[in-house]
């Protein structure tokens, strides 16, 4: 069996919007936010963590984007791993990195895609029944 690829984790506050979009699409998450919105989402984020293949082109295969005050709670807005790299521990690795960077005083919250619920349960997150949401209108 081939060795699993080595993954490089990093904080990339200046991540390129096109790369971000590619991973969203490759993960199955979808990337229909539009370029302007994606750029704004990245430039206003507080946490942009990446996972890249440890090879010459350093291909981006995973990303986590969080919004936080660094003192109370961090909202994970996107967590996406390219389909070709899913199941290698990258999603868990990115969440672990985020938790280490935020430290023990900061809670983490997110709204799961239906297909990802089992992942969040698997990595030990607690399901909160009383969550509320106003949908964006455009
Ligand atoms: C959900 C997602 C981020 C998981 O990333 P990943 O790198 O494939 O997951 P990992 O390899 O880190 O998995 C960690 C553990 O969770 C399990 N797991 C992964 N996805 C799972 C799922 N959908 N359901 C149940 N368990 C899952 C793995 O088997 C692994 O278990 P193990 O610790 O026993 O080995 C990735 O599948 C993805 O990008 N999905 C599409 C986009 C999406 O839905 N993102 C979440 C938005 S809320």
What percent strand? 15-25%
Q: By CATH's scheme, which homologous superfamily applies?
A: Gcn5-related N-acetyltransferase (GNAT)
CATH class: Alpha Beta
Counting DSSP E segments of at least 2 residues, the number of strands comes to 5
CATH names the topology as Aminopeptidase
| Helical content (DSSP H or I, runs of 4+) | 25-40%
Provide a descriptive summary of the structure in words.
The chain has 138 residues and is an alpha+beta fold. The protein has a single domain (7-122), classed as Gcn5-related N-acetyltransferase (GNAT) (Aminopeptidase), CATH 3.40.630.30. The chain is 28% helix and 24% strand. The chain has four helices and five strands, in the order βααβββαβα. It has helices at residues 17-27, 35-43, 90-102, 117-122; strands spanning 7-11, 47-53, 60-68, 73-81, 107-109. It has a five-stranded mixed beta sheet with strand order 1-2-3-4-5. Strand 3 (60-68) and strand 4 (73-81) form a beta hairpin. 22% of the residues are buried. The model has no long low-confidence stretch (mean pLDDT 96). Coenzyme A binds at residues 27-29, 79-81, 86-92, 110, 112-113, 115-116, 118-119, 122-123.
């Amino acid at each position: 069996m081939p060795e699993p690829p080595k993954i490089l984790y990093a904080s990339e506050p200046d991540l390129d919007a096109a790369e971000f979009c590619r991973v969203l699409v490759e993960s199955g998450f979808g990337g229909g936010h539009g370029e302007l919105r994606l750029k704004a989402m990245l430039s206003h984020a507080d946490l942009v963590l990446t996972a890249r293949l440890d090879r010459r082109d350093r291909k981006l295969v995973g990303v986590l984007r969080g919004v936080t005050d660094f003192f109370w709670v961090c909202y994970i807005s996107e967590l996406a791993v390219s389909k070709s790299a899913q199941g290698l521990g990258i999603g868990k690795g990115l969440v672990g990195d985020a938790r280490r960077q935020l430290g023990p005083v900061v809670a983490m919250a997110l709204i799961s895609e239906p297909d990802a619920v089992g992942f969040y349960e698997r990595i030990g997150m607690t399901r909160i029944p009383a969550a509320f949401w106003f949908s964006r209108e455009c």
